[in-house]
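Quick log. Single chain, no ligands specified.
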Amino acid sequence: MPAHLQRAAKTNELGDFLRTRRAAVRPEDAGIATWGPRRVPGLRREELAHLAGISVNYYTRLEQGQSANASDAIIEALARALHLDDAERTHLHALARPTTAKPRRTARAETPTSGAVHLLASMPNVPALLLGRRNDVLAWNPLGHALLAGHLDPSAPEQPATRPNQLRLLFLDPHTRELYRNWADETALAVSSLRYTAADYPDDRLLAELIGDLSINSPEFARLWARHDVRLCSSGTKRLHHPQVGDLDLHYEVLHLPDSHGQRLLTHTAVEGSAAADALSLLHSTPNMSTLTG
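-> predicted structure:
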């Protein structure tokens, strides 16, 4: 993406986020009486400005990207008026008060931490992946590979040029799309989590290129990205339909590694004695998973 387009996109991030959150608040939930139909959903600019205790002119400049010095008090007032949750509030602060840009370095692939790689190898009965901040698969254990990407070469994460990217797989790979029984929910969660990460790393060129590429090649991604939803996904349930062992409902945990610049472990577990646990045991004993094509 050309530099001038990247700058323009960053300038609009705050305004786009404010507009989408403003549209999501019903006037009655904000204590505003309405009479008759309204031309646009949600709050008007003047209504949000009044609720936040700031002038309409100042809020308009903020939404249009013409003010870069909003105080923490103003950002908190807007967050309260918009009924933002903790993840959205943190995201708003990151957009409104970005950290000082560091000198641009040559974009380079991430290097998996040795400790995380050893940890993956030490839990053969738990499907697990090591993900970078751009959602590149930096490493996986055999069961993690068999569960989520058995149709790919098991050695793919070892070289940056062949590494799978979890988001590219989710939106562009038909085998991965068929793997998730609730694909629409899974993609919405993935994109809202990416929004949070992108605000933390605004100068990551490779991350920006990933977002641009997915926006061009996946209408579903482009639609979800335009919603500006923000959410942290640290635990929950994965509803899978594996081509080899059938349906599985697995609990997942995302473990963020300290001092790793966004690297995290994604683990999957099943309730002991459940059908999902039996399916994982069967998968663990199935040979030649790397040749699986669905």
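The longest strand covers residues 246-256.
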